[in-house]
Design goal:
With 149 residues, this protein is α+β, with helices and mostly antiparallel strands. It has four helices and five strands, in the order H-E-E-H-E-H-E-E-H. The structure holds tetrahydrodeoxyuridine. Tetrahydrodeoxyuridine (THU) binds next to strand 1 and helix 2.
């Protein structure tokens, strides 16, 4: 989806706001995400770590699961910000592989992904570019044209 600069920056701002709630006593790497639904509603998320490490949930999936659990299934964009505690991001934070897959389930390749260091410094790409040939619901649909004779 084509987005105006102001829209992009507003979503980045919400990701930074969500990041203030990050629970990161182990990695101290704090991430915020803001997921824009087709109807204009924004669902935010932060990363939530765990002493058992593996139950840790990324910011992107927190936002996605909040949205889906409230009945939302159509999304157009996500903004992601991440950095070590008290630092300005050196690199942009791209969604991890698991989050790419989780998002792909609902958006396919068309989701706009905004990876931001600051409100002025960001990369805009798509989930299709980050997860080429993604595996999704369509892959599990029966293809009648290839049914055995
Ligand atoms: N993390 C996210 O929340 N999103 C990403 O896309 C990358 C990684 C979190 C998980 C963990 O709490 C911390 O960053 C370090 O891996």
């Amino acid at each position: 989806m084509r987005m105006e600069k102001e829209e992009i920056q507003a979503l980045i701002r919400q990701a930074f706001q969500a990041r203030t709630f990050a629970y990161t006593p182990y990695s101290h790497f704090r991430v915020g995400a803001a997921l824009l639904a087709r109807n204009g509603k924004v669902y935010t998320g932060c990363n939530i770590e765990n002493a058992g490490y593996t139950p840790t949930n990324c910011a992107e999936r927190t936002a996605l699961f909040k949205a889906v659990s409230e009945g939302e299934r159509h999304f157009t964009a996500i903004a992601i910000v991440g950095s070590m505690e008290g630092e300005v991001n050196r690199l942009v934070t791209g969604p991890c592989g698991v989050c790419r897959q989780a998002l792909y389930e609902f958006t396919g390749p068309d989701l706009t992904v905004i990876m931001a260091r600051t409100e002025e410094d960001y990369i805009v790409t798509t989930l299709g570019a980050l997860l080429p040939y993604g595996f999704g619901p369509a892959n599990l649909e029966a293809d009648d044209s290839q049914s055995p004779t």
